[in-house]
Amino acid sequence: MRIDSSISAVVTGGASGLGLATVQALRAAGVKVAIFDLNPETGEKVAAETGSVFCPCDVLSDESVDAAFAQARKANGQERVLVSCAGGGNAIPTARRDKNTGEINIFPSDKFEWVLKLNTVGTFRCITRAAAGMMTLDPVDGERGVLINTASAAATDGQMGQAAYSAAKAAIVGMTLTIARDLSREGIRVNTIQPGIFDTPAMARAPQQMKDALGAMVPFPPRLGRADEYASLALEMIRNTYFNGETVRLDGAIRMQPR
Fold first, then answer.
1. Which residue, among 69, 95, 80, has the nearest Cα to 32 in the 3D structure?
2. CB–CB of 32/58 below 8 Å?
3. What is the set of active-site residues?
4. Structural domain spans, the chain
5. What is the DSSP-derived secondary structure letter of residue 184?
6. pLDDT digit string (tens) for 81-108?
7. Is domain 8-250 given the CATH code 3.40.50.720 in the classification?
């Protein structure tokens, strides 16, 4: 698909990190972009800086997602691109014995469920709305749209305490080919990016010593990933019409250790 001012895009989690870098790359190419994000202050600021439209959106809510898509389409027209970057996680062992008291605690089921709802269901909720909208469009060069999801290295080599996050991201990997097959007759492609350790706002809160140590774990290049490198791959997935049903690791060849 050509990337220019003739198309519009939606980026969830677009006010920071990987989503923000994708918004910037799409806008640099002339694409009309709608930013879906929970944070109105950051979202409005980024929208003003990038010439995008900010649409308040909670991917946990059908009503919020429907309203955000309606707002985006009113401003920019029907999107042909959806990049889903919204997500998050927690770090809780499956079961843990307290070193001091010997008390055994388990991973609360509601906290496990929340991570799956945020990452897997939230991504799927946006996919269904975008796909339905794209299906109303006439094909351009044989295709109607492109959906890009965000998984994680944790999907295949999650560390201790990442049971929920690993499950949620593995589900995104697992549904990629199926959704690509579901939408193939409509000319809509689906791919997933599986990032390793990236230098995002969440990582920025970590001490520099920790970030240096994490970067040194990467075989090559021995550093944290940059958000613009994620965006670069996202744009290639949009451009390359034969890129479909794939999950691509973007991690400098790292394979995460248990902890």
1. 80
2. no
3. 165
4. 8-250
5. G
6. 999 999 999 999 999 999 999 999 999 9
7. yes
Mean pLDDT of 9-16: 97
Residue matched to tokens 């351009």: 140
Cα separation, 220 vs 206, whole angstroms? 22
CA distances from 44 to 12, 52, 63, 181, 235 (A): 14, 9, 21, 36, 24
Q: pLDDT band at residue 60, thresholds of 50, 70 and 90?
A: very high
Q: Are 191 and 237 a contacting pair, CB within 8 Å?
A: yes
User: What pLDDT digit, counting tens, does each position of 197-234 carry?
Assistant: 998 877 777 778 777 878 888 999 999 999 999 999 99
- Note whether 1 and 239 are within 8 A (CB): yes
Mean pLDDT of the chain: 95
- Give the C-alpha separation, 186 to 172, whole Å: 21
Which residue intervals of the chain are DSSP H helices? 17-28, 40-50, 62-76, 109-116, 122-134, 154-157, 163-183, 201-204, 208-216, 227-239
Provide the token pair at 9.
Answer: 């895009």
pTM of the predicted model over 0.85: yes
